[in-house]
Amino acid sequence: MSTKKQRGLSLDQQAELALPWAIRVAATLRLADFIAGGVTHLEDLASRAQVHPGALGMLLRYLSASGIFTERAPEHFELTHAARMLLDDHPQHLREQLDQEGVGGNMDRVWIGLLDSIRTGQAAYRAIYGCTFWEALSTNASLSAWFHPLMIRLSTEDADALVKSYDWTRVGHIVDVGGGMGSVLAALLHAYPALSGTLIELPETAARAQATFADRGLLERCSIVGKSFFEPLPPGKDIYLLSCVLFNWDDAPAIEILRRCAQAIGPQGRVLILEPLSGQEPIPRPVTAEELLTLVLLGGQIRSLETYANLAHCADLEICSAHRLTSGNTLIECAASAYGI
């Protein structure tokens, strides 16, 4: 919902929980697909969705009154433009995101812990599920299958901007620390044939990342190391890249990650931090929502450049430069403190 539309709603309308949950239930039951396939009568829809007809009628009447579906005749429902976004083959994949029996439900339920996260500044995920999000990612195949392709889609714009926004011709070897499926590193290696690289990721993700480099014929120029970035990193390389890593972590672990990079670089090496920054301008509503989700999921935060300078200092690093990329994120270049400029 746009900010302009929101301002046209009263506070009690904005606070209403019925509509977002009703839409999620409709998505989970695949009602839009059934209706698009010609199943439009309430009784038939209830049979296909295997739900109570009377309860489904309540749901569809509410969603029709809200403009999501339309009731053309008593107990006969049709799709609106909005409802078509819930079709399984819609390019935005919204139905999958809202499905309460899948990863969408796993993510949505974390919002229950928002109050505790605001009170403590800590992630709510462990209190709700009994483990951290990262622990769940390593053991939940469905969560992992959803998360990694999402990260690839989100990193594409950053990768394109990063290729054009730094002088990679003077770099021999780059270590992509916590680089996920390797899409950013692969883009850099593809664009600069003289460049070689190392991907650092947890073992399961590192194994999956092999395909990213194999598909582009880059395996000979890239080593993939399955380990935590809280462990010592390969020393003496030119660049240690942290691409959208630190905002997933609270200050203490973020400093430890930076410290591992600082311990690995030599006098001429650099640590590159690619992150969204706060404090630059009014932040768009979707970004602020992402920041809240990062808090409840991971205990992370979007930081200011000043805060990153403080974190870098704690890790014996010093910021050399910072500039905003076309993707909207900011590239922060750091050197070891004794060699900072």
Structure commentary:
This protein has helices at 3-7, 11-14, 18-28, 31-36, 42-49, 53-65, 81-84, 94-98, 103-108, 114-120, 125-129, 133-139, 141-164, 183-191, 203-214, 251-264, 285-298, 305-314, and strands at 69-73, 76-79, 173-177, 196-201, 222-226, 239-243, 270-275, 317-324, 330-336. With 341 residues, the protein is an alpha/beta fold. The protein has a seven-stranded mixed β-sheet, sandwiched between helices. A two-stranded antiparallel ribbon has the order 1-2.
Detail the topology: elements first, then pairings.
Blueprint lengths: L2 H5 L3 H4 L3 H11 L2 H6 L5 H8 L3 H13 L3 E5 L2 E4 L1 H4 L9 H5 L4 H6 L5 H7 L4 H5 L3 H7 L1 H24 L8 E5 L5 H9 L4 E6 L1 H12 L7 E5 L12 E5 L7 H14 L5 E6 L9 H14 L6 H10 L2 E8 L5 E7 L5
Helix pairs in contact: 3-6, 12-13, 13-14
Give me some keywords for this one.
Rossmann fold; Arc Repressor Mutant, subunit A; 2 domains; 9 strands; single chain; alpha/beta; protein dimerization activity; 7-stranded mixed sheet; O-methyltransferase activity; 341 residues; 18 helices
Summarize the structure.
With 341 residues, the chain is α/β, with parallel strands linked by helices. It contains 18 helices and nine strands. Helix 3 crosses helix 6 (53-65), helix 12 packs across helix 13 (141-164) and helix 13 packs parallel to helix 14.
**CATH C-level label of the largest domain:** Alpha Beta
CATH homology-level superfamily of the largest domain: Vaccinia Virus protein VP39
At the fold tier of CATH, the topology name of the largest domain is: Rossmann fold
The total of helices stands at 18
Radius of gyration over alpha carbons? 23 Å
Give the termini separation.
Answer: 45 Å
How many domains?
Answer: 2
Which structural category do the helix and sheet elements fall into? alpha/beta
The whole-number mean of residue pLDDT values reads 91
Write down how many β-strands occur, each being a DSSP E stretch of 2 or more residues: 9
Query: In percent terms, what proportion of residues is strand?
Result: 5-15%
Coarse shape: elongated
Low-confidence stretches: none
CATH second-level architecture of the largest domain: 3-Layer(aba) Sandwich
Q: What is the string of helix and strand elements?
A: HHHHHHEEHHHHHHHEHEHEEHEHHEE
Largest sheet, strands/sense/barrel: 7 strands, mixed
